[in-house]
Write a structure and sequence with these properties.
About 0% of the residues lie in helices and about 45% in strands. With about 700 residues, the protein is an all-beta fold. The strands form 14 sheets. A seven-stranded mixed sheet has the order 1-2-28-29-30-31-3, with no helix packed on it. A five-stranded mixed sheet has the order 33-39-38-35-36, with no helix packed on it. Strands 43, 44, 45, 46 and 47 form a five-stranded antiparallel sheet that branches.
Length: about 700
Amino acid sequence: MMRPRSSRLRLAAGAVVLAVAGGGLVLPGAAVAAPAAEVAAEAVGEVAVPFRAGATLVASGAGGFLSTLGDTHYWTRYADGTETQLPRKGAGAYRASAQSDVLVSSEGMRYFVHDMARGVDAPPVVIDSAYELRGVNGSTLVMRDGADGVHLVSRVPGGEVADRAVRGLPTGAVRRVYSTAPGAVAVQTATADTLKDRLSVVDVTTGAVTATYDVTAFTETVQVSAEYVAWRQGADTTWVADRNGGAPARRSFWGLLVPGGWMATGDGFGLSPVAGGETVHALDSARQVVVGADGAALVYGGTLADGVGLFRVSVGADGKAVVKKVADSGERLELLLKGESVPDVMDFDREPRQEMSWEFNHRDVDVTVELTHTATGRKTTLTSWWEPDHFGSHVSWDGLSEKYFGTPNGAHTWKMTTRSVFGTSVTRSGTLTVVRGAKPRDFTDNGVADVLVRDSEGKLSAYELSQLSALDAECWEEGCRPQLRATTPTTLGTGWNTYTLMASPSDRTIVGRGRDGVLWLHKGEKGKLLPRTKVGGGWQVYNKITGGSDLNADGRGDLLATDASGVLWFYASTGDTARPFKPRVKVGGGWQAYDLLTAPGNVAGATGGDLLARDEDGVLWMYLGKGDGTFTARRKVGGGWQKYTHIVPGGRNWRGVGNLFAMGPSGSAIHYGTNSTTTPFGTGDKVPVNGDSTTYKSLF
């Protein structure tokens, strides 16, 4: 099922997530940029420094930046754009020091401190330590020992290893260590209260705690800048405090702390004043952001004018954003279609789910597809699944519309539109043909079984069982259609009050007995009923007729009728419109005990079509067809069926056996066939439709 896009789970506006390898932050999907008057962009010129499309920006120093693509790390120099693939060591991950050119790799308990400013081939400083690495600050390793002690470990080339224990931490287990700004580390420790923690800022130079704050145990993301400490509590609560102590203030946004009192936030990427005030908008898109060595934000994002790459973003003295492109990924920001796959023919008999797909230059693009049946104008709307980090968008279709009716066979036009991405969108259109073989009791030629209803004014309508079964049904799974509140029946014709008895003996065939006893036959073709043909007279002797079961195993549904004396007669179908039935054959007497008959086809897995009969006490009885026009001895289905005024065939289920649709003044139900001769039907699934003699005068 197609599910509505409104149910998609997304990050809240302005939310950011810490990148794994360094101090970078990943922003959510960007929106359209703010008015151009707020942005003052520097002249870009030709940008020689490359940035791999789809890579993750990890950290930036004065000499270059670290990025990853998959599990491969790259260092790119700003001076000449030289990109170096870093060798894999140990687990393969490199940790980066915020706002510097220092990277750290490891093999077991051996740590390698690489100063990329000295060149990619410069030998690293090697530090052996049994501690657990928790962060990198400059050339200092921030580590934790087995007793919850925090250590600052460093070594100059050729010198001894300096191991300084952090002094002044509150008593308690160390939960997390954060290193997001040069010269400062934040340490979160537990307290005796399981709901409360303590957050301490540590000066890396002295190894001493400079400020401590009360936080909750649910605090997981902490940042430190030259001026502030910020942390998150829950999905939408941000607290910001002065780095040197003081009461924290609550804020409605979250992002990366940028020196100068700013926080980089999402929604098109902007800089929000930590102390409060208007956000300064900078770019049309932002994917990751880190703080560079000069204190400005370095953003992997883009603009419609300059494409995608790395942009240096700061706020000028005039309060406007200053933007300069420093690396180019070769991507364009406007939405572009790169590929399309739409079948010319959708054969739902060969494949019950059909797909249409498009490939774009952006990930996770929402698409909406509207299909229109050429002959009737009936429309079906499909929406794409959420596929995070996919450049392709597709719709998967089971042949039903968002309102649960089947789409008719035949020619369709389709139109695909995308959600606006950075102010741009894509529209495509075409034609296709839907085909399926004939289905039992499908009068509207759309692959779904129907219940036929005649109202008190003589209008004949087809109610699709897919809609009846879905009425008011609740679904909480991903991909559900919207809840259906009403059916949309298809009108087959008017003037049907001329008939006193009606039945459907075969697929797309209706018979009706006139007041003069003449039986007429109506054949259906491509969702429409053809002019009637005369079967013959003398049918006034019957008080009940029913059809739908193939009683003689010739592949055609047959007709049954009871006369006033209680004798049941069998009329075998011929398949010939000019002579639709063979001469009648007597089945047996005693059928005056029943007030209702229905022939739903094979419901119990025997050799032929079956017959159901309800007696005056409300007990339902099953007669298994032998396949030769006769039945086995009756078997009791159960009591309580007197609450229904109509019991009719309800299509076939996944077991290949028939269901029942039952309607009464107090409600309706679908009883699904179980393919069992002892318990042929399960407990009825309620349908919120109350029968009445005006709307539902006759059902068959």
